[in-house]
Amino acid sequence: MRFSAPRSVSPSPERRPRKPKPKPRDDNINHASRRHTSTFGLNSSSEESESELELESDSGESVPESEDSFCYASESEVPPPPSKPKRLSSRPSHIEDTIAAIRLRTRHYDPYEEWEREMKKDSLRAAHKNYNDAQAKFTQTQNQRQLEQSRRLAAQFKQDELQILQKIDHLRIQQQTNEKTLQQRLNERNALEQDRVQARLDAEEKKRREEEERRMEEERKKRLEEERIQREREEEQRKKAEEQRKRDEEQRKKDEEERRLREEQEAALREARERDERLKAEAESRKAAGMTTYADDWKEARKNLQILKTQGTRVVKTNSTLKPLWSAGRRAITAKIGQLTNDEPTINRVSSQLIEILLPPLAPIPPPVYTALLSSLAKALVLQAETEITAEKRSAIPLAQVTFNCLERLEGFSEVLYAKMTQRIGPWLVPCPIPEKDFDGRAWKDAGEIRLMQGLYFEVLKIVPRQGPMKRMFQLPRYWTWMARMLGARTLLATSVGAEVLFIALDVLGADALQIWGHQFVKLLRLVYDGASEGLGDGKLMGGTSPDGIAARARVKLEVENIMRGIS
Questions:
Q1: Do 543 and 499 touch, CB atoms closer than 8 A?
Q2: Is 346 exposed, middle or buried, given 0-12, 13-18 or 19+ CB atoms closer than 10 A?
Q3: pLDDT at site 97
Q4: What would the DSSP string read from start to end of 439-479?
Q5: Cα separation values, 387 from 148, 338, 381, 395, Å
Q6: Whole-model pTM?
């Protein structure tokens, strides 16, 4: 431990200049005396000077050089060194002068040096005092801490003692309770044993009486046994007849069910043939007008989805150069979509940032990366729509605006988004029944999981383009095509999901469609209302018979009434 000693307040003495000594007669001797401070092997006459030098060296101090020490005022006064050292004269006067000069230097008394020594002593005493005070304070703190620790331990021991006493009292009470319980059980067991002995005596008495009665009952039992055998025979014949009747009834019901299924299959095949014939008859006119069937739209969406996988995502995943670009862009897309809120500045900012990710201003990204990023953007929008619509359907409005902005600016995004939406929600976007085979003729392997995020699609159709017409799958007339196809597919309307999707279509765009198509849309609404009220025909109800379907059918009716109330 280091202690700093304060300086004494005693003033520093001033050195007074001394008169210069006369120079020795021999310059060589003076020069040797200035360069060497030893006593040159002097005898006991210089003991006092040597003792003073030893005192100063023991205290760790160097004797400061006084103003009258052997030095020159300037460089010009220093005599040049001799070319060859000369031997000192052996004359006694020179030696005496040298000894006198050394003694004068060693016996010189300097007040400043004396003051400095006294000041160091005072500092050492102050440091000792500070150390003793700190040690005393540390000892007092340790004693106080030990006292507090002893008090805390005593309180803890007292508390533990009280807890132990309480535990002992609790165990004593519990023991008394257990003893009372055991005594009560012992009394009950004794009473039960007495009852068992009495019951055994009664049983022996009863057995004796039963043996007497058994002889009397033998003849009666024989008679009853013959009657029982006769009744069993009659019951067995009756059961056989009943089983035969049930088998005949089940076979009749089975035949009726098979006949009904055959009729339904024939009706479905007949309806499919009629629909195919009608579609074939309308194929040329549709082709001339640029219209497509639901099967064409479904095949196109599935084909575009396959192209996305083979020419986009799979390519960049297997390429070590393209994969980092795609990964960075995908993370940026997810982050930007998560920042979307329902205000116009944020919608415009997020839209611009998403477009800039796929169309960087400095250098275009490679085509495979662009295709893969289009797929990532479509997937992120669809997943965000699913999340938001689950909580609130109206929350799809800002997301639809961002989607519309991307559709206007990004080439090829319309086909990619439509393909990804059909991948997530199945046939409900077209709409159409799920075909038996995929677009390339292979058997269908998708799980068919349905997610109700159809509102995003209708919200996009609702927005008016600013930079020219959109692709046909995102134009407003597509809504009329969707409604017509939906009402023509009874198998879809008969499900609870079909009724729910129809309600979403009417809720999002029904009032606007009425303003656009007028009386023609009123006719379509009448068909919807009749289907929700009276059924679809052939005993089928819109939405089916499940609780979800019944609720969806009721919402469809209410929405049609609300739309019609707007023009009344």
A1: yes
A2: middle
A3: 85
A4: TTSPBP---------HHHHHHHHHSPPSSS---GGGSTHHH
A5: 61, 11, 10, 10
A6: 0.51
Of 389, 517, 567, 404, nearest to 471 by C-alpha is 404
Q: Say how far apart CA 242 and CA 503 lie, in whole Å.
A: 51
The token pair that represents 62 in the structure block: 């160097």
Quickly state the pLDDT bin for 390 (edges 50, 70, 90). Answer: low
Q: Contact, 454 vs 425, CB < 8 A?
A: yes
pLDDT above 70 as % of the chain: 76
What pLDDT, on a 0 to 100 scale, did the predictor assign at position 58? Answer: 41
Radius of gyration of the chain (CA): 58
Q: Record the tokens describing residue 518, joined without a space.
A: 């007028």
500's CB contacts (< 8 A; 6+ apart) are 452, 543, 548, 552, 555
* Greater pLDDT, 394 or 507: 507
DSSP 544-564: -SSHHHHHHHHHHHHHHHHHH
CA distance 299 to 288: 20
Which of these, 411, 416, 422, 516, lies nearest to 468 by C-alpha position? 411
Identify the three-state secondary structure at position 484.
helix
| pLDDT at site 292 | 77
Task: Give residue limits of the domains in the chain.
Answer: 27-109, 293-475, 478-568
- Spatial separation of the C-alpha atoms in residues 507 and 511, rounded to whole Å: 8
Token pair for 245: 């009747």
CATH architecture entry for 293-475: Alpha Horseshoe (1.25)
- Residue appearing with tokens 């001797």: 29
Digit-coded pLDDT (tens) for 156-202: 999 999 999 999 999 999 999 999 999 999 999 988 988 888 888 88
Q: How confident is the model at residue 16 (pLDDT cuts 50, 70, 90)?
A: very low
Asked if residue 518 lies in contact with residue 466, where contact means CB atoms within 8 angstroms, the answer is no
Count of alpha carbons within 13 angstroms of residue 164, beta-carbon side: 6
